[in-house]
Each structure stands twice: as C-alpha cells, then as structure tokens.
C-alpha cells in the first residue's frame, strides 16, 4: 500500500513554494553560462573543447543522476533528498565560483547537475504526494512547469547583467547562497513523505543506467568537434552497451529501479516521449538562438539573452494558464498540441539571414514560447499521474531525465547541422544558412513528437496500478 496524499494546508503551500523556488533556481543555474561562456572561457583559458564542456557538463550530472535521485526520494524520503540536493548544489556552486582552471569548473558543474537532479525529482514528487489528482494538482504542477520557463528566461539575463556589474564569478556566489537558503528553508518547512513499501537499492540498475547516460552525453558533447574520433566512438559504444545491460538488469532484479512494466502505460510513454522531444526538438534549437543573434546580427550577450526571453518568458507566463484547459483537453493532448505550436514556431524561424532585423526572430519565439509553456505544465502533471502514487518521484525523474537527455541530443544535432551548412560568405552568412536548416529539422522533429504523443491513446485499464506483476506487488 502507499501513503495517501495529504490535504491542502499551510504545509502544502510551503511545499508548493519551495518546489517552485528550487526548480526556478535549478534552471537559472542551468542556463547561466549561455550568455557568459565567452567570458568564462577567457578567464579560465579554455579551448574550444573546454567551451563545449562549460556549456554541457551540467547535463551529464543531471541526466545521469535523475533516476537514482527519484528512487532514493521515494524510498528514503523526498524531503531528505530535497535538503541533500540543496546543500550539494551550494557546495558545488562554490567550487564553480573559485575554479582556477576549466577542469575544476566542469567538475563543479557536473556535481551541480547531480544536486539539481535531487531537487527536481524530489520537488515534483513532493507536489504529487501533497496534492491529490484534480484542479489543485493541475494548478501546482502548472506553477512548477512555469518555473522551468522562468528559470531559462532569467538565467542568461541574470548572468549577463551581473557579469557587467562585477566579475562572472559573482553569479555563482549568489546561486550558492540561494541554494543554501533553500536547503535551510526545506529542512524547516517540508514534511517528510516516502513510499510505504521500501524497496532494496538497485545498485546494478543505478550503475548501468547512470553510467550509460553519462557516457552517452559525454560522447555527444565530445562529438561536436568530430564524430569519427576514436574516443568519441568508444564513449558512444560503451554507452549503448551499458544501456542494454540496464534493460537486462531491470528484467531480472526483484525490485528494479525502473519497472519496465511502466512502458505498457500509454500515459508514461507519452510523458517520456513528450519530454524527450521537448529537449531534442525545442531546447536544442533554442540554445543556439543567442549565439545565432550574436553572430548574425552583432547583438551583445545581454541583448541576445533578452531576445531568447521572448521564448522562455512566454513559457513562464503560459504554463500556469494551461490548468484552465485540463477539464476540456487532457494533459496528454495538451502536450501534443503544445509541441505542434512549438514546431510551427521553429519553422517560422526559417529564412532569417544576416540582413534580417532582430524582430524577425520574435514571431517564431513567441509561438515556441507559448507552446513550451503548455508542454511544461502538462508534462509535469502527466509525469505524476502516469505512475503509481508511491512512485511519483520516479515518474518525475524519468520525465526530467528524458528532457535533459533530449536536450543533449538536440544540441548535438543542431551543432552537426551548423557544421554541415554551406561554407562561404562569412560567419554571419554561414550561421544564417545553418539556422534555416536547423529550424526546419527541429520543427519537423517536434511536430513528429507531437504525433507520437497523440498516438499514445489511453485506456482505463492501462492506467490501473496493477499494470504489471511487479507494480501489483508494490501497491
């Protein structure tokens, strides 16, 4: 049996506030280097490979540790994982702030990713426990989803502004203090919750999945400088072998970290596919918008970060409003519809050149932002309800891991497309041509993802908590 969600109370309001603040902080930290990467690269004397790792290293820790964090949160305490995540984020951010060389900064970012995984998995798990299914949960998950867009909007602007006023390292000192305050607030205000059925720790599952995802993202990151390099091929092959081993392990272990029977639940599959395609089709392209604006139009880092806010800021605004349509259009169809709008917005970016005004970006970014807000809110609700009540943190972890793995795939895809764009005419012309190809491919992928989510049709029996024998044994 599982613990029952608690009624709405002052404790529930504190849980909602803490979950939203922590998620906002995680995404601000995640996107902070986007506008200041050149400054950090110069300060740390990083090469091209170092710059790639400055941007991508946090995804390694995030995606690799999310499932482990979700499992530990459900089995050993969601509050406990939240507090540990806040403390670890504070310490890792201090490492980034004092880093004398690139490897130390990258190591700090990887640990930041692991800490962020603990905060994301436990925060949405706490919301799923506190708020029962219905309008209140839709409102809570909508606000949580809004924080994803809000953090992406604030992060690049915040770091660019603080970098102009003082040193780039101040960005990380402020984040470290904020993380410490979140940890202290969580230790005082949150109530502990966990599954009534405490399972044995699936060490083999943690090592094979975490190691496989870590090697895969490392291979994708290193592959941007050449996909045929021996070490890149070794990383990718090792990743595939470990992920295949994870499937074998989960089929054989008595109490798996991720019950593969969940894959027979259409809502769970829709949650995973929707998050993966959000990362791969949308976030991957949007990561390059500031770089494209700087290269093509000569915009400053601050101005390009503000331009990106047309996407991320509108995502923040749209997410809380999505709850108003839950009764009319279910969360799965909201995800599909939101992805379609995102895809159309990306297709609108086709044809931007170095002669274009910055206003040419705005219609596409507005559409993609509105669609992303709906997707973020609906995915949060879908992730919580697609798993048994005692596994809500695992549902959150699987959803977020898919998002960040997808974003790594998307960034690698866009980088490859830009590298294959026609040469000649200068860097601005080449970026314009590459952006057109990348927008076309990303838009098509996003719309295809919407179709896949729409096809995950749900049947009443498919959402039963006794979907598989293993699930039945834990309910």
Number of domains: 2
Helix/strand/pairing category: mainly alpha
Helical stretch count?
17
CATH uppermost class of the largest domain: Mainly Alpha
How many β strands by DSSP? 0
Radius of gyration: 21 Å
Cα separation of the termini? 5 Å
Helix content: over 70%
Q: Determine the CATH topology of the largest domain.
A: Growth Hormone, Chain: A
Task: Please outline the helices and strands.
Layout: H1 10-31, H2 37-44, H3 48-76, H4 78-98, H5 102-130, H6 135-165, H7 169-189, H8 203-223, H9 230-252, H10 266-286, H11 289-297, H12 301-318, H13 331-348, H14 362-385, H15 392-420, H16 427-455, H17 469-474
Helix pairs in contact: 1-5, 1-6, 1-7, 2-3, 3-4, 3-5, 3-8, 3-15, 4-5, 4-7, 5-15, 6-12, 6-14, 8-9, 8-15, 10-13, 10-14, 10-15, 10-16, 11-12, 11-16, 12-14, 13-14, 13-16, 14-15, 15-16
What can you tell me about this protein's structure?
With 475 residues, this protein is mainly alpha-helical. It folds into 2 domains: 10-202 and 253-474, Growth Hormone, Chain: A (Up-down Bundle); 203-252. Helices cover 76% and strands 0% of the residues. The chain has 17 helices and no strands. It has helices spanning 10-31, 37-44, 48-76, 78-98, 102-130, 135-165, 169-189, 203-223, 230-252, 266-286, 289-297, 301-318, 331-348, 362-385, 392-420, 427-455, 469-474. α10 (266-286) runs parallel beside α13 (331-348) and α11 packs antiparallel against α16. The longest helix is centred in the first third of the chain and has 31 residues, at 135-165. The protein is globular and about 65 Å long.
